[in-house]
Amino acid sequence: MIEETVKVKSILDGNKDAYDSIIERYKNRLYAVTLRMAGSEDKAERLVEKSFITAYEKLALYEEKDFFSDWLYRQTLTLIKAEVASYGKTNPEHYIQFYNPRFLEIEEAIANLESKNRFEFLLHHALAETPEKLAVFLDEQVEDIKWRYQQSLKAIRERLLEFDPETSSEECFSFDELIQYFDEVLMEGGKEKVEDHLEFCPSCREILTSLKAEKKGLEDVIHTPKLDDAFNRRVLNKLTPYVKKVPKHRTWKYQLGVIGIMAAVFMIGAVVVPNLKPLANKVAAYIEYGTIYNVWTEGTYKATDEDLSFEVKSVDIDPLHMVVYYEARRKDKLIRNFVDFDIFEPNAVQLVDENGKKYPIEVTQPMGSMFYTPPQGNEADNHQSFVIRAIEEEKLPDKFKLKFKLRRMQGITGNWEVEVPIRYDKVENNLKVVELNEVKEIDGKIEIEFLTMIYGKHGSRLTYNVRLKEGEKKRLENLLKETREGDPVLERYQYAYADIQLMNQEGQYMVPLYYHSQLMEWTPGERITQDYSLYHFDYENYQNLGKTESNGPYFADVRNIHYNEPSFVSLSLPLEEAENKPLNIELEGLTLKDLTVRPKENGEDDRSYQILINAVRNKGESEKQYHWNVVGENGEYLELHYMGNHIPPDIQGEFELFNAEIFPRDIQKEMDKVTLQAEGAYNFYMFDEGELRIPLFEEE
């Protein structure tokens, strides 16, 4: 029985607190949609709260034959769709939760979509549901939803991606053709031609890398907003418990009938159960020898439903990781790069001992998802894998089971359950721990402290800290106090982040393992524990290159470091034509030198202005990018298209600090001036391969 069905039964019996886990599972998916439709956190939170209350009041209508998430979305989305229909265009500045210029660009691209298209686009990504499912939830035609999604994706790509035809040769494919290849909609022959061309064309590979980064950024942005734990309690406090139904007394005839059925089941079992003896022998052998390879025969740990099968092919275990190799097939045809299944759903993967006690675990994204493409070769080389990590590894029992309970694969609802017995006491504890105690300082502002490196048989683990030095931290605190003291969003992001890659002795980058908690949130300021697999990848193209022979020894290669600072800027700019008008304004290590304003006629009643500010850098080593916006005379936010907006590292002499075009559309009154504002700056340090490399082993 599905766990949520059990929860519903408990709720209908009067236990309204059982609704808490249902709220927790679905609240952030709905909030990710409503926030960007409502345009404010308060309005979005009230709408999600109202939808959960409405669904609760209809729980008695839920039928067990339905997949619960489908039923819940039908109830909540009907309400949300009606509410957001009246909402207009939103301004991401009012609700963005992560002050990152790239995130803001993506948010603005989403906000620029038409309301209905935006709603369906957000649902597609936040709920990870197919167009067929969304059509049912929203009472729309499938083809219409598919068409609107493609239009939305095209509009977002046009805003976020740049394609320079001058960098391409006559043999290069068009931008649209590369997009079709990336979206896997090219015919087989066309796909092979593109792949042959990519092998020798860096400019086309660069476009594909941009498409991958755009896809990753889009997912990161959409899943960023979170509702706190207090939200659950606020909803529960507004619910009235159901009154438990008391069953009627059964007659003696009914009870005798039940006994007869049970007897028949027992007799059938006496015939059927002996046929399971071969499988029992395999499991017994496995438990005895503590290894999977001498008993793991084809189909032993396999589940099939709706013409789809999920099979656990093998499990590699050391005290750090449990690497699960699996395979998915549709009608016996292997599904490559298989990532669409609900592995991150609560209870989709469980670790349970002989007494039924569950142990907390974390699960990684599959190795074939995100940036990493599985290596191409024979079927044996293409087994997908993911990694399980026990939260408290030292408390694991000698014997336990890994239980896989999947309810969605390839957009199809079904039931795929597999149990794999494990003898953990047979696992060899062959970890090697290296104490590093290495500190690297960057620009007098940041420290990276490398603490420990652990080498296991099936992966490794690096522990480190990234922090601002006290002087820089104090400077940022003072900046915040001067203008926006107590702003929880800005205060949260006054921390340094680092992209640290592991590299083996052959110069190959190792694929990092990202657990679900790392994908959803990260607590700044705490020590970072990062796990790595035995696979290596192409750093430039993010392509999985296969498995290495051994684990380590490794180097840590620092590729970039970044952090935000609360740089509050407000400049009043007249909208009169000017060319290199002197400014001479001092701004945190910069001198704003001059201003250029160029009015542009774009058609009847459509005017824009190009604004260019040149500056000279006085100090600092990081690349810096300000979070600019332009405000009209009455406080209206104006549409802004960047053409240049960063301070390159080690810049000498004059450079363009700000180059953008503003569009005072829908502003009836003629404006004489605008205000250029910035509420923060993004500091970014980049390092070449090997420029900042730390050995993670004991040197002789």
From TrEMBL:
Q: Where are the transmembrane segments?
A: 254-273
**Presence of the UniProt keyword Translocase in the record:** no
In Swiss-Prot or TrEMBL terms, this protein is called DNA-directed RNA polymerase specialized sigma24 family protein
The record's listing under Gene3D superfamilies reads: 1.10.1740.10, bacillus anthracis domain
Query: SUPFAM superfamilies annotated for this entry?
Result: Sigma2 domain of RNA polymerase sigma factors (SSF88946)
- Please provide, in alphabetical order, the Gene Ontology terms of the cellular component aspect for this entry: DNA-directed RNA polymerase complex
For this protein's source organism, the top of the classification is: Bacteria, Bacillati, Bacillota, Bacilli, Bacillales
Top-rank lineage group of the source organism: Bacteria
Question: Which keywords label this protein?
Answer: DNA-directed RNA polymerase, Membrane, Transcription, Transmembrane, Transmembrane helix
